Amino acid sequence: MLEREVAKRVFAQEYRESNLTFKESDDQYSPLYLLTPTGAKCNRVFITGTLTEKEDIGATAEHWRARVADPTGVFTIYAGQYQPEAAQMLSAIELPQFVAVVGKTNTYDTGEGIITSIRPESIQVIDAETRDRWILETAKHTLERIATLGSDDPDAIKAREHYSPDLERYKQMVLQALKSIGKGQVPEEETEEDKAEKVGFEVMDLSKA
Amino acid sequence: MVKDIAEELKSRFSEMGLDVPLEDIKSKLDELINKFRVPVDEAKRSVVSQYLKESNIPRSKFYGEDASLVKVGDISSEGRWVSLKAKVVQLWPSESDSIAQAGLIGDETGAIKFVNWAKSARPLVEEGKSYIFKNVVTDSWQGRFQVNFNKNTDIQEIEEDIEVGSSVEDVTGAIVDIQSGSGLIKRCESCNRVLIKGSCGEHGKVEGKYDLRVKAVIDDGKIVRDAILNREITEKLTGITLDMAKKMAEEALDPSKVIDTITEQLMGSYFNVKGPRVGRYILVETMEKVAPISDEEIQGTIAMAEGL
Question: Is B30 domain-assigned?
Answer without folding.
Answer: yes
